[in-house]
Amino acid sequence: MPVMVITGTGTEVGKTVVTAAVAATALAAGRSVAVLKAAQTGVRPDEAGDAEEVARLAGAVTTDELARYPDPLAPATAARRAGRAPVRPHEVAERAAKLATEHDLVLVEGAGGLLVRFDAAGGTLADAAALLAAPVLVVASAGLGTLNVTELTARELRGRGLDLAGVVIGSWPAAPDLASRCNLLDLPDVTGAPLLGAVPAGAGALDPAGFRSSAPHWLAPRLEGTWDAGTFRAREAP
Fold it and tell me: What residues have CB less than 8 Å from 127, skipping those under 6 apart?
C-alpha cells in the first residue's frame, strides 16, 4: 500500500487529524511517510496548511502541496477567483507516484469530499485515485446524517471501480448520543466496508508527543494500529 488517498464525506469531519494519525502510526512502525495535499484552500501563503499540521502532530513526514488558494472554497472555484491555474488529477497522481519512489507510504489528502472539483473540467480526487490505483480511506462524522453521505461516497467509489479501504470516524465525541452509538453498527452495513478507527474529538489539540503515542490506539491493524472495532462497539454501541 505505497499510496493511500484520504477523503472526507464533507468538510470539518476530521480528515487532517485522521491523516496525521495514520502518518504517526506508520512512523511508529518504522515506515517513511510523505503527505501530499492536493489543493490547499483558505490559507494565506504565510500560514501553515493541512500538510504542515499533519507534520506538527505526526512528526518527521515529508510534506508537499500542489497548489494553494486564499479563498476557503472548492479548489476549482478558489483557483478561478485567484486567477491561478487549477490542480489537475494527473498532476496529483504524478506527484504522489514520485513521492512513492522515495517513501514507504504516501498519504494524499483531498479537499472536502470525494467529488469536490479540482478544475473546470470536473476533475476530482476520485480521478486521481483511479490514476494511482490507490485505496481510498473515507473519514466520516459520528452523528446524525453521516449514514447517507458515507453510503453515497462508498457507492461512488465502487461505481468507479475504486478500492474503499474502510471508514474512520474523524471525531468521536466524549459523550456520544444515540445516533453516534448506533452508527457504529450501521456504518459498516451501509458502506460494505470495515470501520477502521475512531479518533477522539479534540485529538488535534493534544501536544504532539501525546498525539503520537495515542494515535495507534485509534486505528485498526490494517492501518498499523491496535484499535479493535468489536471491542469499541461492545463498549460504545447501544
Answer: 89
